[in-house]
Amino acid sequence: xxxxxxxxxxxxxxxxxxxxxxxxxxxxxxxxxxxxxxxxxxxxxxxxxxxxxxxxxxxxxxxxxxxxxxxxxxxxxxxxxxxxxxxxxxxxxxxxxxxxxxxxxxxxxxxxxxxxxxxxxxxxxxxxxxxxxxxxxxxxxxxxxxxxxxxxxxxxxxxxxxxxxxxxxxxxxxxxxxxxxxxxxxxxxxxxxxxxxxxxxxxxxxxxxxxxxxxxxxxxxxxxxxxxxxxxxxxxxxxxxxxxxxxxxxxxxxxxxxxxxxxxxxxxxxxxxxxxxxxxxxxxxxxxxxxxxxxxxxxxxxxxxxxxxxxxxxxxxxxxxxxxxxxxxxxxxxxxxxxxxxxxxxxxxxxxxxxxxxxxxxxxxxxxxxxxxxxxxxxxxxxxxxxxxxxxxxxxxxxxxxxxxxxxxxxxxxxxxxxxxxxxxxxxxxxxxxxxxxxxxxxxxxxxxxxxxxxxxxxxxxxxxxxxxxxxxxxxxxxxxxxxxxxxxxxxxxxxxxxxxxxxxxxxxxxxxxxxxxxxxxxxxxxxxxxxxxxxxxxxxxxxxxxxxxxxxxxxxxxxxxxxxxxxxxxxxxxxxxxxxxxxxxxxxxxxxxxxxxxxxxxxxxxxxxxxxxxxxxxxxxxxxxxxxxxxxxxxxxxxxxxxxxxxxxxxxxxxxxxxxxxxxxxxxxxxxxxxxxxxxxxxxxxxxxxxxxxxxxxxxxxxxxxxxxxxxxxxxxxxxxxxxxxxxxxxxxxxxxxxxxxxxxxxxxxxxxxxxxxxxxxxxxxxxxxxxxxxxxxxxxxxxxxxxxxxxxxxxxxxxxxxxxxxxxxxxxxxxxxxxxxxxxxxxxxxxxxxxxxxxxxxxxxxxxxxxxxxxxxxxxxxxxxxxxxxxxxxxxxxxxxxxxxxxxxxxxxxxxxxxxxxxxxxxxxxxxxxxxxxxxxxxxxxxxxxxxxxxxxxxxxxxxxxxxxxxxxxxxxxxxxxxxxxxxxxxxxxxxxxxxxxxxxxxxxxxxxxxxxxxxxxxxxxxxxxxxxxxxxxxxxxxxxxxxxxxxxxxxxxxxxxxxxxxxxxxxxxxxxxxxxxxxxxxxxxxxxxxxxxxxxxxxxxxxxxxxxxxxxxxxxxxxxxxxxxxxxxxxxxxxxxxxxxxxxxxxxxxxxxxxxxxxxxxxxxxxxxxxxxxxxxxxxxxxxxxxxxxxxxxxxxxxxxxxxxxxxxxxxxxxxxxxxxxxxxxxxxxxxxxxxxxxxxxxxxxxxxxxxxxxxxxxxxxxxxxxxxxxxxxxxxxxxxxxxxxxxxxxx
Length: 1279
What we know:
The chain is mainly alpha-helical. The chain is built from 61 helices and no strands.
């Protein structure tokens, strides 16, 4: 290739002439003026044909008059032009020609960029020097007339050259930069951008080119940025044979000098100076993330940056704050570095500057200025880091520091109306208060009241406020976070921090803090309805302001109780004095609670919170006060709210209160004091009271059952009272369990559920099919508008009544109570085992029949006799309705209101059907889980695994994605609780069936979802598709997390207390002898050694690599990386599967644009497979050679480098470089010049992504709903 010959365009012209001719004709026709004159060069001669074609093609691409076909042809031509051998010369020629438009010059620079990125290794030394010379010439010629994006592109070219040749064959780069630095400001800005980008690529980004030369580039950057004196002092023995620096001062010092000059020369008024200051700070910010702290201190960087905080320019202030944030977000500072860089920020002068900047940046919720508000957010994050240092090295902070002023600044930021601004500092307060060193400091005493007040105000449930509320914090929340799920996650995190602040303060200062909190709450309760309408049942709303206020204050009290209990457990350092104060405090607490119970609230939800709080007091701080517990118990038993069904919302709240009363009874029973349990008379009185309440009527079956469970719990716990006769206790317990056992032994029940039809008749479902057919439900479009007749309503009633007659709910309730918080080997555990060991074998056969038929009911094939045209309605009938935050229209309360309003419609009829089946199914799940907690008494049945696997998974494919997620969760518990010695017998049929069904379900659902994405156009269809996609992602994530949990190398085997007596217990559980107890080992090793489980598991994991869910794909990549090494020496069958299927799936995903954010992880997996398996198999090599563009000599070179690579980063870089032509591209990479945002919200949303590091489970953004275009013949990649 001769770039310097007289006619360098000849090859490109011959190669692309046919396409160019077509393009020329199109462009001529599309020209606005109807004609296109040939472009001329500087001396008037006609421009070479290829350059003319490039210019015309760019005009066709960017002209609004171009047709789609001409734009497409032009784009193809331009992409092909990049691959031409003469492209670098064309690029330099056009880029250096200032008569060309900026668009042309920018594309010309991309020709040079393509040559550097893709062809650099193929160039000779002469060619690479020529290319470098062109780039240096372009940099030298930069001036202020060049558009910013052209200058940025030139800087990027410089960086691409540096990453490939600096500190090896290119040794004078630093000198060239220094000489440019001596030029005008525009050249200084170019140098700043070069060094900023180089810093980012070498140290902060996953750049493949930089990673390949990581050691050289790291050392070179340190050399040129750090002052020579600092290097000589800290590395006196460093190698100086290879010298890449020019001058002794280093770039940090030069940056500081330039920033100082900008601040003195009109940074607030001169746009050019302001731009230079911002770029200088940006370069400093990039360097602060890696440069030596001693170098930063030596050149007084923090002093220069802090001066920028006072600059009369918000962008400059923002850049300064970001730079300080980058510095102080680094976690490790040596003591001398801490004194030099961190402690000055605590001085009175610095604190005053920070305080003034913050106060100036505060914006009002009624007028949110975007620039100042963003500054407040970043400023808060920076102050948070500074605050964290107080906890890390408190003893090093100088005595003269203004710590009270800094703490007050943190308090003011925490009090900001925006929770987004407040949250970073709030998290720092938690750390400071929790620290044993700083938490006891007297400096916090003046701030405690304010901290408690802020937390009390912020614990209100903002997500329950109406969106049109004028509450400032809600206004900011809506401004910051667009979607409901993210808001819920954010306020949940914020509330947890507030609770931790309250809890920690009370633990440190229990008496004063408790008094403050209770006084604050009492005042709020007395003024609850001030400014609010009085309570009216007819206008009742669940989320009224008074109810939300009560909930917030009671949450503060509950947090305070947790802190108080922790203080009591530690009991202070002064036992006698603490005991006196504790007794006094508890007297006050009891008195306060009695006053609370004496208050008369009409709102059922407020009554509910009062009951909950009273029980919390009784079971925590006042758990030794039996008299108070009896008062609370009496209050619960006497709470009989009057229902008024004329007002549905109020009536629902009353029922909610009634249900909560029974729940609070159970909580109270679980904490019944031992000395109360000793007295038979106490139990007799409670039993008599319960019997009176039940005899009084007005209770449904669920409530009656709850009262019996209350007595059952007390009886179960009575083992703690040794004075009670054990035979009496066992007799009482058996009196509860015997009716359950007899109901399961009923011959009629066994006969009924022996067949699917009998199961349907038992539940009343047999009439459902006939009713749906007779009403021709498939012809009804709006089920919610079709009112049921008398027969339909009668079937609804019968469904509910028949379920109540089944033994499922009582069994679930009593065995659930027996298993609550069981600790194996404890007295409670032994009692539960003795109580249920003879009942479990009676329950299991019929229980599995119930479960099997429930799953079969979802399969339309089992609806025999149903006309073919009605079969699609089976899925519709059995698909659950639910509300999804951020997707469903309206609020959750609106959804429940709509559901309630359709109870007597065909939609309500379908809800009754699926509700009955769901209750049976999920009750069976609960019973199985409770049984699994009893160890050998469940897992010890030799005949169980096969029938259990069939009952769980035979018809699981017919379940919806949501229902499958529930089943998966149940299966996970069954697997986790399996004793180690029984794994080989119990788990293979369970896990093999599970992964086979999950793979089938997940893969088919994703395939259907992708097909729907192509076809859906209407809004209703799109909303439904979004719901389905959200649920499917949840199912997929649950499945991959289960895989990751099972194969986690750090997973520890759970101890099983009953394991030592397993064989003795077998005789009581099953007549069949169990397999011999095997050696204890990890679940991971067990699964990897079990072919029956491993085969479907690997199939699922391989398919998961191709699913359109980046979160799930990332988990599976980590799973594969953790297990690949297990098969490097043996198991050639598994090794070949991974070499073929897993490697192909990884490469295919690497190719697609959707997975662009996972390219680093995919590349690491590919590298791992190649490195570990290539010595034993030729398959990885053959797979890679089959890819288009992969040449054998290049692969051999990469293979050698992979084996000697010193880090994972280098391995990834080698793979990414090898597959450069096949990698997918992000949206940003696909464009040539970034277009301005379409609306003002776009920029704000980009800035809001800073919240994501505080939130869990974020949503994937910018998903291409239409799928990924074919960018390289993926179908034909493997051959």
